[in-house]
Amino acid sequence: MDQIVKNVVEGLGTSSSSELIIFVVSMLPVLELRGGILAAGMLNVDMVRALIICMAGTLLPIPFILLFIRQILDWMRNTRFVKLVHRLEEKAEQKSQSIEKYKTFGLFVFVAIPLPGTGAWTGALIAALMGMRFRHAMFSIIAGTLTAGIIMCFISYGMLGRIW
């Protein structure tokens, strides 16, 4: 992931502000907050400022995903992207099995663990396909994203080494 973040940061260039770069990186589906925090570390952005910007970037698309992803997937089924829709639904179905048992708390844990394949975008997709209530899904995703952000800050800014 480090190399992807580095390429995106270089691609956005030096003409953009560091804050804008980490905001954009945080909005990207695969990178999300984890990538934004890594980019902030590369760009020497203050940890608290980076966490706030990355949270905003990651959470901005989430309400739209929760509200409109079903309609978008239905529309995509009638296009040449039908295979992509099936892949997304299969992936979400596989991951939703671990979440379904615990619902809101399960979604929180899923989003909070900063590993590849987890995060706010995937969590929102799963919540929407499970038919989870918007309010519960948003609460879980916000809390999970904040937790993942704190974990990533401890890792990326070397705080674990200072604690131990």
Plain-language structure description:
This protein is mainly alpha-helical. It folds into two domains: 2-58, no CATH class; 62-150, no CATH class. It is built from ten helices and no strands. The chain has helices at 2-12, 18-27, 32-42, 47-59, 62-76, 82-100, 103-112, 120-130, 134-156, 159-163. Helix 5 (62-76) crosses helix 8. It is globular and about 40 Å long. Keywords: Membrane, Transmembrane, Transmembrane helix.
SSE blueprint:
Elements: H1 2-12, H2 18-27, H3 32-42, H4 47-59, H5 62-76, H6 82-100, H7 103-112, H8 120-130, H9 134-156, H10 159-163
What is Rg?
16 Å
| Total number of strands | 0
Distance between the termini: 26 Å
Oligomer: single chain
Mean pLDDT: 85
| Structure class | mainly alpha
Number of domains: 2
Order of helices and strands: HHHHHHHHHH
Number of helices: 10
Helix fraction bin: over 70%
Largest sheet: none
% residues in beta strands? under 5%
Q: Based on Cα principal axes, name the global outline.
A: globular
Q: Outline of this structure?
A:
The chain crosses the membrane at residues 20-41, 47-69, 105-131, 137-160. 78% of the residues lie in helices and 0% in strands.
List keywords for this structure.
single chain; 164 residues; 2 domains; globular
